[in-house]
Amino acid sequence: MAVRLWGIEFARFADDQATLLGSAAQFAATHQLPLTTGMSFTIGIRHPPLATFLLIPPALLSRSPVLASAYVALLDALAALFVYAAARRVAGRSVAAAAGLLYALEPSAVVYGRTIWNPDLVPLCAAVALWGLIEFWQRDNDWAQAAALFAIGCAAQLHPQAAALLVVWLAVTLAKGRWRWPSAVAVLGLGVTLGPYLYLQISSGWADLRAAALYLQQPKQLDGQALAAMMALFSEQAHRELLLPHDTFLPAFSMDPLGWFFAIALAAGLALTGLRRRGEELVVAGCFVAPLLAALNHAGGVAPHYLLALLPAGCILAALAIAALPSQALATAILVLVLGGTAAAGIQFKLAVPEQGMSSNYGMPLRYSVEAADLASASSGPLYVSNRDQEAGVFGYLLPGRQKRFDGRYTFVLPPGQATYLADSSVEFAYGQLTERAASPARTVKTPGGLIAYGLFIALDTLSLPSPAAAGEGISGGPLDVDVGHAVRLLGYDAPELRAGSPSPVRLAWRVTDAHGPIPDDVREFGHLVDASGRLWSSNADFRGYPRPYWEDGDTVISSFALNLPADTPSGGYWFETGFYEPISGQRLPQYRGGQAAGTAARIGPLKVSGRSPAAVAERPLAVLGGGEIALLSVQRGADGIDLRWQALRKPAHDYTAFVHVLNAQGQIVAQQDGQPRGGSYPTSLWDGGEVVDDPHPLSVAATPGLQVETGLYTFPDLRRLPVDGTTSDRVLLPLPTS
Fold it and tell me: What is the mean pLDDT of the chain?
């Protein structure tokens, strides 16, 4: 219990936790039974309301998320007692003590056991089910059988993967040949917990049943994901991965000493139960194997929390393996070493969370969000919250009715008039926008080490701040005037430097023109880089950014796209395509220019990408044009015409048009092609000094003796050719290459 309660104020608290507590608080305020928790499983099924019911006791006392987190931690501590009780029935007190201690200190059990989340209550249900099945097997206790059935039913409501434990219950029931009325009471109890959910299904035409059927029809794959998730669960990976930077994850089977211990101990424990064939040990093995086998053949990914039902049985199996060692002294030494190392790692993790949590996968610790809400509660007017989408509902719960939030990783919002901002400092884009415009926050929430977790920027007059759409005032790439769905107007863009192999920022300014316009209630922004043929080159994510329910007329928004371009992207001109779409159907919002339909994606460019270019050659160029501005390195016969190779000796001052004319023996043009380099996709004004550029020109001409090619550059529309240095000519004349 102490392990779980120590530092509980730094527990994880994000959108799912806020949603669950919000549903419990809603019941406490209105006494209306919830039909669901307000969330859905990844397979598209809405949660039954059991998790909400379990959170009602603390909600009746207080809205404090710290109290609710402590309550959940106490519930998980009960799981350790049931693990002890089950192991004692199986192999006596020493094995029970080992199993209980392993569960109490196991990193995943501790991390998940301190978090308000429906899957995190599965281990308690699994432990109760395991104890009940063993008690029923040994003593024919019908109420224990009923308790196991009820616990399995609850676990399945918390996460569907736990329903695999029902196979073990059926196997034990059939082996014992006993089915008494207490189990009917358990079924009735489950019906009571599911009653509101069943009403929801009936009133919605069994929508979740149809979603489950669709999921079951999806193609399955048999691979090692479930085994990798299982080993992540029984290792230090929960600690290591949570402290990695946001959205950074360890590879599968990233084993550590604790992981190797459990891998060996679990395999040995399963082997022992198979050899000894004792009924109660087989029950333990079944409760471990059944959920694991159910996850091996899967339609989607398998995350470690899907397999939390394995923890109680796994700790007992590991304890049985230790107890089977021939030397008691060796067994004790191994157990002490494992427990000591695990406890030390757990302490180190908890000491690191207050300083590292907010900038890692762990997320913003609860205490800082509570303190930030207290600071913001003293301000007046609308509060604009900048945090990650994973924490979207945090201040909706802590400050109900006050917040207008946006995902500060990608978005910054400037409403008309005054605004107060509460910003997560680890969300660098929006926090940087605020510090650029307001210098420093009026008040801050800091970590014990002095790092800023949240900054509160009070009553900023956004009308006096630099306009994000004005040239030279933050968005300087160029103006735009694009109407999106008669609700949004694109104002301008900025693309300071696009470079292959590294995230390249493009910023887009837009304004809400009609917050209640004829567009869907949920829209996402996209921004991708394409070449002249329309091929997609960037791999950045789309985002919701500024959720539409918060929009108001006149809101100005800056969206930031970090374009991830492959390292082998060729240097050249590319186009940034951007717009909005409805995420379920994928349908893009229409766009208009000058009142006329203009497709569904604003096309901005060409924009320069610095990437892979041909290497400069040491040979003397064929010619130099424009007073040492551009050199012609080669003229070759290509598959579709004539290929030129240029080199910018300094950055070109204009957009030049290249001409390629094929002349016969009389000097008459028999074929020609004029155009900006690469079909207009890479204008010379984008070239850098020293850069080599291949420029193909499609021409269809037969290889006839005596043909020549003349080429050069000119400006448009005055058609003035660049002179060839060292000559009086404005063209380069060469024999037509044969290859």
Answer: 90
553 three-state secondary structure: coil
Residue 592 has pLDDT above 90, yes or no: yes
With a cut of 90, say whether residue 677 has pLDDT above it.
yes
Q: How much is the pLDDT for 466?
A: 45
Q: Could you tell me if 465 and 433 are in contact, meaning their C-beta atoms sit under 8 angstroms apart?
A: no
In tens, the pLDDT along 494-527 reads 888 899 988 889 999 999 999 998 999 999 999 9
Residues pairing with 12 in the sheet:
365
The reported pLDDT for the residue numbered 300 is 80
- How far is 311 from 158, CA to CA, in rounded Å? 15
Task: Provide the b/e sequence for 552-568 (b: ≥16 CB within 10 Å).
Answer: eeebbbbbbbbbbbeee
Question: What does residue 572 show for φ and ψ, rounded to 5 degrees?
Answer: 160, -170
Three-state SS for 405?
strand
Strand 498-499 relative to strand 602-610, pairing: parallel
In 368-523, which ranges are E strands? 383-387, 403-407, 411-414, 418-424, 443-446, 452-461, 478-484, 488-494, 498-499, 503-512
Name the percent of the chain lying above pLDDT 90: 69
Tokens of 493: 């863009």
Q: What is the dihedral of CA 497, 501, 502, 506, to 10 degrees?
A: 40
Q: How many residues does the chain have?
A: 739
* pLDDT for the residue numbered 378: 83
Superfamily of domain 478-610: Immunoglobulins (2.60.40.10)
Distance of alpha carbon 601 from alpha carbon 591, whole angstroms: 7
Locus of tokens 């950055």: 651
d(CA 278, CA 287): 14
Instruction: Look at residues 495, 476, 465, 471 and name the one whose alpha carbon lies nearest to residue 560.
Output: 495
Sheet containing 498-499: order of strands: 498-499, 602-610, 572-581, 524-530
Q: What pLDDT score was predicted for residue 478? A: 67
Helix orientation angle between 279-296 and 65-91, rounded to the nearest 10 degrees: 130
Across residues 252-277, what is the average pLDDT? 94
**How many angstroms separate the CA atoms of 56 and 525, rounded?**
38
Question: Would you give the DSSP letter of residue 605?
Answer: E
CB-count exposure of residue 614 (10 Å: 0-12, 13-18, 19+): middle
User: Between these two residues, 631 and 614, which has the higher pLDDT value?
Assistant: 631
- Euclidean distance between CA atoms 78 and 74, whole angstroms: 7
- The CA-atom distances, in angstroms, between 381 and each of 199, 376, 424 are 40, 10, 19
Strand-pair category, 403-407 with 732-735: unpaired
pLDDT (tens digit, 9 = 90+) per residue, 329-383? 999 999 999 999 999 999 999 999 999 999 999 999 999 999 999 999 888 778 9
In this prediction the pTM is: 0.86
Give CA angle at 471 (469, 473), nearest 5°.
Answer: 75
Q: Using 50, 70 and 90 to split pLDDT, how confident is the model at 540?
A: confident
User: Can you tell me the distance from the alpha carbon of 96 to that of 81, in angstroms, rounded to the nearest whole number?
Assistant: 9
Taking alpha carbons only, the member of 18, 123, 125 closest to residue 68 is 18
b/e sequence 317-354, b meaning 16+ C-beta within 10 Å: bbbbbbbbeeeeeebeebbeebeebbeebbeebbeebb
Q: At residue 144, does pLDDT exceed 80?
A: yes
What is the phi/psi pair of residue 378, to 5°?
Answer: -80, -10
Mean pLDDT, to the nearest integer, of 18-44? 90
Give the amino acid at 207: A
How high is the pLDDT of residue 76? Answer: 94
CA 673 to chain centre: 48
- Pick from 436, 472, 440, 473: nearest CA to 456: 440
Instruction: Please give the CATH topology (third level) of the domain spanning 623-735.
Output: Immunoglobulin-like (2.60.40)
